[in-house]
């Protein structure tokens, strides 16, 4: 490959690498698995980059490749990928008047999200990233109407999980 193509890819990857890290956090449960998935997604992005035509935003294309790679590996593994224990996080900064209500609610929400299937997780992830239904549909390769219907069903499913 030519140097300009390589330079452009590296520049775009560095600018948008948080997308890949977010996908990795969603589908892995430890540091090594995160790094392995990050590397695999990067490889897949590099392989696909020469075919990137710019019809969608680079970030949308990156979400699509990243999620598809994670989902493919998730399906191949045929195992449940669990989240990292929240208590296992090394840093905890608390102010004197710290209220952890929101933190506890997020913990419960993410525990519920991890009970969803791989496609549902991807849809919720993009929704929580404030992507509109057009961008979600482009990223996941489904129609906008289908994305809306699926999201409504997922919301109902999450309410059921959270209320049980």
From TrEMBL:
Gene3D superfamilies: 1.10.1740.10, Winged helix-like DNA-binding domain superfamily/Winged helix DNA-binding domain. The keyword Transcription regulation applies. Residues 108-158 form the RNA polymerase sigma factor 70 region 4 type domain. GO terms for molecular function: DNA binding; sigma factor activity. The keyword Transcription regulation applies. Keywords: Sigma factor, Transcription, Transcription regulation. InterPro entries: RNA_pol_sigma-70-like, RNA_pol_sigma-70_dom, RNA_pol_sigma70_r2, RNA_pol_sigma70_r4_t2, RNA_pol_sigma_r2, RNA_pol_sigma_r3/r4-like, WH-like_DNA-bd_sf. It holds the Pfam family Sigma70_r4_2. Residues 12-80 form the RNA polymerase sigma-70 region domain. One of its GO terms (biological process) is DNA-templated transcription initiation. Belongs to the sigma-70 factor family. ECF subfamily. NCBIfam families: sigma70-ECF (TIGR02937). This is RNA polymerase subunit sigma-70.
């Amino acid at each position: 490959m030519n140097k300009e193509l390589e330079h452009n890819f590296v520049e775009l990857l560095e600018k948008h690498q948080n997308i890949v890290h977010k996908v990795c956090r969603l589908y892995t449960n430890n540091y090594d698995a995160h790094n392995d998935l990050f590397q695999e997604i990067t490889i897949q992005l590099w392989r696909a980059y020469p075919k990137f035509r710019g019809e969608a935003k680079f970030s949308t294309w990156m979400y699509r490749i990243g999620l598809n790679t994670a989902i493919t590996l998730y399906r191949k593994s045929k195992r449940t990928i669990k989240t990292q224990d929240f208590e296992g996080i090394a840093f905890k900064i608390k102010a004197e008047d710290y209220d952890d209500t929101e933190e506890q609610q997020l913990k419960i929400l993410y525990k519920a999200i991890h009970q969803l299937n791989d496609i549902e997780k991807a849809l919720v992830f993009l929704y929580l990233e404030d992507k509109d239904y057009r961008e979600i549909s482009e990223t996941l390769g489904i129609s906008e109407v289908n994305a809306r219907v699926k999201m409504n069903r997922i919301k109902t499913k999450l309410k059921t999980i959270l209320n049980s």
